[in-house]
Prior knowledge:
By secondary structure, the chain is an alpha/beta fold. 43% of the residues lie in helices and 19% in strands. It contains eleven helices and eleven strands.
Amino acid sequence: xxxxxxxxxxxxxxxxxxxxxxxxxxxxxxxxxxxxxxxxxxxxxxxxxxxxxxxxxxxxxxxxxxxxxxxxxxxxxxxxxxxxxxxxxxxxxxxxxxxxxxxxxxxxxxxxxxxxxxxxxxxxxxxxxxxxxxxxxxxxxxxxxxxxxxxxxxxxxxxxxxxxxxxxxxxxxxxxxxxxxxxxxxxxxxxxxxxxxxxxxxxxxxxxxxxxxxxxxxxxxxxxxxxxxxxxxxxxxxxxxxxxxxxxxxxxxxxxxxxxxxxxxxxxxxxxxxxxxxxxxxxxxxxxxxxxxxxxxxxxxxxxxxxxxxxxxxxxxxxxxxxxxxxxxx
Length: 330
């Protein structure tokens, strides 16, 4: 009897299964040998800022460790929406990563329609560092503590201005959350970034500013402005005499974390490599000193801890967005 020239369905099924297994083994092998070519880390902010500086410090470390290029690609368009969407749609092979912040992952999706789902399309890998926010007051302000500020604001409703580095920024939302918790009425004055906002505070053109610690720590040893409180649960080592906001409003905490995020489906072998090296980078005394110099606390978290922070912050920033009176853009 002549043998069939074409395989049977059973044979095709076996071949299909073998093919799938081969593909799986191939993907696993590729993950084990990753990286075999340069890796792109997309930064959703312009070059020169804190996030960019942190990303470059980590990229240099990873490049030395793996012997492959880790290229920083700054894409600030749309507040980082374009960059985040690009990573969400990237092939999950570990060669396209995002150096993200809460802005792209939590806040922006509450304010504008984005072309990605931060939960379904992206996976947290590791937070490299986190920065506090500091509530500052102008030198001539008739109060020296948060309690005195609140008492003054209640006696003079709507008379205090608070500078904002931009609508929806963490500093803006921190100020709105503070005002809500304190039950005070303040007027938000938007500026085009932290630099102009600080300049206005120093010049006495605005009464208050909730800004990045990296922006305000330079005034610790001066009398040009007053530092009233920090947004983290613990005081800053660079400003040990500045109390925490949580000391009067328990649980109050906001921070500007930055870390690696990848597209859903990135192999666990690659994630584990990045987690290990990010943690080691954060623990490196030389890198830690550089981060502390710009008001950043080294972290090096696990993916699980990163995910827990994101989930914990979602309701907090929802409350802050509502307190600020911000609405989803149509």
